[in-house]
Amino acid sequence: MPHHSRPTRSFAIVAVAAIALLAGARVAAQPPVKSFDVPLEWTPREVPAVPVVDLTGGLERLRVVPLADAREDRTSIGDVTGRNTRVVTGTDVAAFVDQHLRRELASGGLDLVTEDADLTLTGELTQFWIDDGETYTGTVRVRLRLTNREGAEVWAALATGRGENWGRRMRRLNYTETITSAILDLASNVLTNAQFMNAIRKVPTGTTRPGG
Question: Measured between alpha carbons, how far is 135 from 124 in angstroms, rounded to an integer?
Fold first, then answer.
């Protein structure tokens, strides 16, 4: 019986090479991803409505630890749909969120201190993203943890803020307005969280806080 192993093997090698060349051509034909830089600025579209916070009985002194950045890519903050473009920033994103979240929490009535605190709030930024498509949509997500003087956890949650905007695509002001709205929404969601507010409310004399 005649042997056909050599021609068959040669044909297989040629086929593999052709597939590799075709795949390479497709990759080469794809345009490189462009970057659009957006320096972060605080640009609220209107005066935000501060939520009503129940201060009955007073609130414990709260120390807020600087927010950590837990995102894998700390420079990318968004995507432009259909334009092969990613949105980037040179701004310290975690510091930006931390600065404005602190201010909004203080404006809401929280007693923020730097020392001799009754409770400590720590957090990690897990998402900071803006989608530029038919509309602008922004999401800020933070993992928060509240501990007492002994370090015991008294509250923990994954808090989210969202913002939306309309306007011309790839316009820096539209990005910053969207993310500003998302941070304002994040702060409002924290201030109106019943479990969080109960955890920071002053404990009447003679009673013990859960977890304490």
Answer: 27
What is the C-alpha to C-alpha distance for residues 72 and 70, in angstroms, rounded to an integer? 6
Answer whether residue 205 shows pLDDT above 70. Answer: no
DSSP 146: E
**CATH classification at residue 58:** 3.40.50.10610
Residue 1 has pLDDT above 80, yes or no: no
Residues near 41 by beta carbon (within 8 Å), at least 6 away in sequence: 176
What pLDDT score does 47 carry? 77
Residue 23: strand pairing partners: none
Give the H/E segment covering residue 191. Answer: helix 172-191
Q: Does residue 139 contact residue 161 with C-beta atoms inside 8 Å?
A: yes
* Calpha distance 51→49 (Å, rounded): 6
Average pLDDT of the residues of the chain: 89
Kindly state whether residues 138 and 179 are assigned to the same domain.
Answer: yes
Q: Is residue 211's pLDDT more than 60?
A: no
112 and 146 together in one domain: yes
How far is 57 from 202, CA to CA, in rounded Å? 6
> Are 190 and 106 a contacting pair, CB within 8 Å?
no
84 and 6 housed in the same domain: no
Nearest to 88 by CA among 63, 100, 65, 71: 71
Mean pLDDT value of segment 23-36: 68
What average pLDDT does range 154-174 have in this prediction? Answer: 97
User: Same structural domain for residues 24 and 50?
Assistant: no
Answer for the pair 189, 161: CB distance below 8 angstroms, yes or no.
yes
